[in-house]
Amino acid sequence: MLMLIDVYCMFNRARGTELISPDDLLHACRLFTELNFALKVREFSSGVLAIQGPTHDDKRMTQTILQIIDSRGPITDIQLSGLLSISIIVAAEHLHSAENAGALCRDTTPEATRFYKNLFVFV
Fold it and tell me: Nearest-5° angle of CA 29, CA 35, CA 36?
């Protein structure tokens, strides 16, 4: 999964000249589903736009996060981004989505926000 702004920067950097506008890229990416591509544009609740493949849907990502928490203990967005090689913003969005689904709960301290498995759901 890549944030749309990152895709825009990489695409225009690769072209060098005759750059495309952000609107043109967004319009082209929104055609993915009509063209039966495996990728799609996803808008998170915070408004962040990303290009998402089939392996990054909420259900699979929640399962992956729960497996990581089971093996490593509570996790922050920074730790998750390093483990999954995704940006911190996307990692935070996945953690919040899993929390909204009831799979995770959080502990916010001045140091960091750590996400735990919601044991009340899995009892």
Answer: 105
* pLDDT, tens digit, 9 for 90 and up, residues 16-63: 888 999 999 999 999 998 999 999 999 988 899 999 988 888 899 999
Q: Which residues are CB-neighbours of 84 under 8 A, at least 6 positions away?
A: 64, 91
User: Which residues, listed in sequence order, are joined to residue 40 by a DSSP beta bridge?
Assistant: 52
CA distance 3 to 59: 19
Structural domains of the chain in order of their starting residue, each with its CATH number: 2-54 (1.10.10.10), 57-117 (1.10.10.10)
pLDDT at 123 over 70: no
Phi, psi of 35 (to 5 degrees): -90, 5
pTM: 0.83
Which helix (H) or strand (E) segment holds residue 114: the answer is strand 113-117
Length, in residues, of the chain: 123
Task: List the one residue out of 93, 71, 91, 66 whose CA is nearest residue 81.
Answer: 91
